[in-house]
Amino acid sequence: MDKPLLSEAFNYTRRMPQNEREAFAVFCALNVIRLGATEKVISNDYANGIAKPHVIKVVAYALEHPELNLIDNVYIDTSCKPNCIYIMCMGVQFSYHSVPLNNETIMSFVVSEKNQPIKFDKIKKKQMAVELFEFAKEVMANSITDRMIVQEKVSQLSRLYV
């Protein structure tokens, strides 16, 4: 992984998505940032200090603006340690552990009936983070909204990283 790609991924954490394609790209960018920390290109503290709070900001924004349809579904599991948030976006699942639940919208959601379990799909997106981020940029550039295309690409990538 190179620094320009990480820099580009960090740019996606500087704004709130306005549609599902942008949200998909944000979650893919966050996985690039996590991969950068895993590969020691950036520090784990720095990556987590940016990525984890941004996950919560985007999810809270999505919950506050349901009319934008940014995410399909979200589940915040506080029963496990560390906590885990599962996000479905464009039919693709993203998960993040140890996210800060220090947001009023998030805390209200956690205790609501809307916080329904989502089963982990066992596809680790961090392994395919670079390819998935490049695909997310294509999704945005070409205004792809067909979830079958998106899900098929994730399926193809997951077979490469088993």
List how many beta strands DSSP finds. 3
Q: What is the ordering of alpha helices and beta strands?
A: HHHEEEHHH
State which percent range the strand residues make up: 5-15%
Question: Looking at the structure, what is the overall shape?
Answer: globular
Q: How many discrete structural domains?
A: 1
Number of helices: 6
Structural class: mainly alpha
The low-pLDDT segments are: none
Residues in helices, as a percent range: 40-55%
Radius of gyration: 15 Å
CA distance, first residue to last residue: 20 Å
State the strand order across the main sheet.
Answer: 1-2-3
Instruction: Please tell me the overall pLDDT.
Output: 94
Q: Sheet with the most strands?
A: 3 strands, antiparallel
Describe the overall structure.
With 162 residues, this protein is mainly α. It has one domain (3-160). The protein contains 6 helices and 3 strands. The chain has helices spanning 3-11, 20-38, 44-64, 104-110, 129-141, 147-160, and strands at residues 73-77, 84-89, 92-97. It has a 3-stranded antiparallel β-sheet. A hairpin with a 2-residue loop joins strand 2 (84-89) and strand 3. Helix 1 (3-11) runs antiparallel to helix 2 (20-38), helix 2 runs antiparallel to helix 3 (44-64) and helix 2 (20-38) packs antiparallel against helix 5 (129-141). The two termini are 20 Å apart. The model has no long low-confidence stretch (mean pLDDT 94).
